[in-house]
Amino acid sequence: MKIAHFDCFSGISGDMTLAALLDLGVPLEYLNAVLASLDIPGLALTVEEVRRKGFRAKKITVIHPRVHDHRHHEHKPDHEHKHHGDRGEKHEKKHGEKHRHLSDIRALIERAHANSGLTERTRSLALAIFTRIAEAEARVHGCDIEQVHFHEVGAIDSIADIIGCAAGFDYLGIERFTSGPPATGTGTVTIAHGECPIPAPATALLLKDIPIHATAIPFELTTPTGAGILKTLVSGFGSFPPMRLDAIGCGAGGRDLEQQANILRILVGETAETTASSESGNGEKHGVWVLETNLDDMSGESVGYVVERLWKLAPRPLDVWTTPIQMKKNRPGVTLSVLCEADHREAVEHLLFMETTTLGIRRHPVARTVLERTTDTVRTAWGELRVKRAVLPDGSHRISPEYESARELAERSGIPLHVLYDSAGHDSILRSGKPEPS
């Protein structure tokens, strides 16, 4: 399983996260193509290498014609950024940009997805982060989620941050996220509603139930965007998880702190949490949970909708399936089952209770044997295809194309999907040796 760990010793913001993803190898051209699909004229990213207390890191700038100073940086030295209300409100009043509601941002993302500018997973991750932040803002201001005015997160640069981060994680194929406790900083911050202690109201609400790291640094280190990313994606907080470390990306904040390097590190590697050794030595037994409920008073369309909602959870379940059953009084029904990590149970149960007619959910732990696998790319006659390559107990490899990558290539080339699958399998036979690192 490909895992990303956030090392937030100097906090986390949207632009620091996006810069770290670029440092991990996400191509700038790819992210700019994603942003171009949003149909916001002139929107683009630039990246530079900087030093923070002597340490190298990447720093991004969002460029847009109406943003004359290019960016109100979330860690800006003169602290113009303030907080989510102040930055966006000044920014939009000055440059004529309207306030955006969640529905406006959702429509922006859906249009880009419909035009094949965003993959399904990028769309899902971005919407999940925006929705989390909207829920926090609505709770703070005591209004409906659709009435929330997105000041900071509605500003052009923050839209670029969140959608760019979603695209970057999708590009890298990250399947699980963990994090160390984020540093919040101390002191006060000025928002549209006045001066507030750090962490500011929406940030504090997003950090609820998350362990935070206390520091005496008198600045806002974790922003609402950064807190929204953690709240949406991370399944566990603590020290580094066991992994084979493959890459480290460093994203810089705008301010050069006196006390320490103002850097966010993202560590990426392969991991499979081991609960017992496999007898064959070629797999790992991994503890996960099955949640299930029986339904006999919902239409097939409604059940299908719930399945779609489950797949759009961030982080995603490991598997979702339905089984036809016969219930009391000979009523036909269906068992809806979800396989997920222990840390994801609460989110799955919440969705099942909210979206189905069930009055109870069964759950039990199960063990599974997981083969070693890597993400790889194979060349076909029609272009590159992303695949999963598994190592079988006898040491041989089995290749399985990534569906979204195969679908996009099939649509682009006009080749039947099964032909691409056959081509990828033939390519795996021709190649020899160990799979390349993802």
What does this structure look like?
With 438 residues, the protein is α+β, with helices and mostly antiparallel strands. The protein folds into 3 domains: 2-270, no CATH class; 283-370, Transcriptional regulatory protein pf0864 domain like (Alpha-Beta Plaits, 2-Layer Sandwich), CATH 3.30.70.1380; 373-430. The protein has helices spanning 14-23, 28-36, 84-95, 102-114, 120-141, 156-172, 201-206, 224-233, 300-311, 345-355, 403-413, 417-430, and strands at 2-7, 44-52, 55-63, 176-179, 188-191, 194-197, 236-237, 244-252, 263-270, 276-277, 283-295, 319-326, 332-340, 362-371, 373-380, 383-391, 397-401. The strands form 5 sheets. Strands 7-4-1-9-8 form a 5-stranded mixed beta sheet. Helix 1 runs parallel beside helix 6 (156-172) and helix 5 packs across helix 6. Residues 67-96, 273-285 and 428-438 have low confidence and may be disordered.
For the record, the count of structural domains works out to 3
Largest sheet: 5 strands, mixed
Q: Strands across the major sheet, in which order?
A: 7-4-1-9-8
Strand content: 25-35%
Mean pLDDT: 81
Shape: globular
Q: Helical percent range?
A: 25-40%
Distance from N terminus to C terminus (CA atoms, Å) equals: 11 Å
User: Regions with pLDDT < 50 over 5+ consecutive residues?
Assistant: 67-96, 273-285, 428-438
Structural class by secondary-structure content: alpha+beta
N-to-C SSE string, H for helix and E for strand? EHHEEHHHHEEEHHEEEEEHEEHEEEEHH
SS element count, helices: 12
Tell me the radius of gyration. Answer: 23 Å
Number of strands: 17
